[in-house]
Structure formats: C-alpha cells, structure tokens
Amino acid sequence: MSTDKNDTSFSASEAADARGDRSDTVSALERGISVLRCFSEERPVLGHADIARMTGIPRPTVNRLVATLLSMGMLKAAQVADRFMLGPGVVSLSRVFLGSLDVRAAARPSMQAMAEEVGASVYLAIRDGMEMVLIEACRPRSSMLSARLDVGSRAPLANSALGRAYLSALPEAQRNQLIDSMRLLRGPEWDGIAPGMTRAIGEARRLGYCLSLGEFHREINSVSVPFIGPDGEVMSLNGGGAAFVFSEERLRNELAPRLHDIALTIARDIGGHVPTPTPSPG
Fold first, then answer.
1. CB under 8 Å to 272, separation ≥6 — which residues?
2. CB 83 within 8 A of CB 119
3. Second label for 53, Cα 20 to 30 Å away, from 108, 114, 178, 243?
C-alpha cells in the first residue's frame, strides 16, 4: 500500500532503537519478522537482494533467514527464479488473529451500512509499530474512486486520519513517546509532516474527529474517530473517498457524526468507550 512518498518501512534494528528496548528482543526473531514485513501489496514478490536492501541485513544472513522461512511455510518460491512471496503459514496466523477480534463482528454491520448509504469506504484499524493496520474494510458496491485498501493494508501514523485519531486518544506520555520515535524514523521529512499531524491531533481532542485531506493519498479525503476497547486498546474508524466527492465540509458535517455514532455503538457492544472531546476554553 505504501508509496515512495509515504513509505514507512524501516529495519528491525531501527525500530528497536527508536523504542529503546533492544535488550529485551531476540535479534534472530526480530530479523525474521523484518523480512516478512518487507512484503506488501505493492511489493508481493521480492528477491534476496531486495530484502537485504530494505532491511539492512547482510546478504548471507538474509539467505539463511529466507531458507528458514521457506521451510516453515512463511514464505514460498515465486514462479520467477530466486524470488519469493508470503506463504500459507502467514495466512493461517492472520486468520487466527482476525478470528479472535470480536470487535470486527460488532463493527461490520454498521460500517457496511454507512458505506452503502454515503458511498464512502469505511475502515477499522489498530496500531502495529509505526503504522495503522486495517482489520476491517467496507466499501460501497459502486464507487467512482476509492483508496485501494483492504484488510491488512497499512497507513502511517503521522499523515493518515486513522493514525492521527489513534494518537489523539492515547495518554499524553505514550503519545509523546511515539511521536519522538516517529521523529527519529522519518528523518528530514519530519518537519513537513509534523505541523499537519499536530493540528489534527489537537482537533481530534477538541472535536472527537480529525481529517486527512490528500495528505496520505493525494486524491483521497478522509475523517477518523477513535474509540477504546475494554482492555484499553485504541482503535480508529475511518470514512472517506475521492476528494472531489468528499469535501472537507461533507466530511465534517456528514461523515464525522456518522462515524462517531458507529464508534459509540461498537464501544457499547464490546464494553469500551469513546474519548470525550475537550473543547478549548473560550
């Protein structure tokens, strides 16, 4: 799903350095997972050299990691020689994870109804590292233009509405820690990302929702609202679509209230809650 502009992939060592928890990790496992995370919708087939370049892991080590993942069914050989794809072992794990998420069953009817009634794509996401990963996706049966996102697709925390809504609902200390990590990982581009993110987080805390107007996908506008599960996990609901259909005014006046109502319904059904907006004084 990521593009060069919004590519948030980084090596396992960089992620651990940003978290400051390398002493608690197993480096071999960390490297194996970083290999799996190289594969995406835009990069479904990769070779040894591609993986080495993307992870920063030495080529001989990549060769051994790939061989191990092949033997365990996490990768499989592609039709092109010395190229690989995600294997059925990954699908099995994904099914177990998704099947355990009762929130999806609670969310889907309302999400699909909204998608059909307003013509928007509607998503539900949780955080994974420095990205939001979709765990449910509903689209209208006919749409002029929509983001090509599905379950498993990812969106960056900093410049997607999903990520900004998530950040707004975190305790301040946890939010600041994540923002510090993103600042390190995004490098020079951070100065261009941070102002919009900061404004959106502030808006979400005041109004209960925030926007991304062409900042993640240039032709897509969207709005997101956060809610919190019974175990304290923050999740985000998102609605939107083609910018020429979903103007800022329509997002604020039509989609945001609808998403808020859906968030309230889901939270009630699973025993969670929706953060209470805190309007600015005056």
1. 227, 228, 229, 230, 266
2. no
3. 178
In this prediction, residue 6 carries a pLDDT of 42
The Cα 138–Cα 217 span in angstroms is 18
Low-confidence ranges of the chain (pLDDT < 70): 1-25, 94-101, 142-148, 280-282
Residues 133 and 227: their CA atoms lie apart, in Å, by: 15
> Which domains are assigned to the chain?
12-87 (1.10.10.10), 101-270 (3.30.450.40)
Residue pair 209/165 in contact by the 8 Å Cβ criterion: yes
Using an 8 Å Cβ cutoff, are 70 and 76 in contact?
yes
Alpha carbons 236 and 242: distance in angstroms, whole number: 20
The tens digit of pLDDT for each residue in 226-241 reads 999 887 889 999 999 8
pLDDT value at residue 279: 75
Q: Is 276 exposed, middle or buried (0-12, 13-18, 19+ CB in 10 A)?
A: exposed
Torsion of CA 247, 203, 183, 173, to 10 degrees: -150
Nearest to 249 by CA among 257, 70, 19: 257
Greatest Cα-to-Cα distance within the chain, rounded to the nearest angstrom? 66
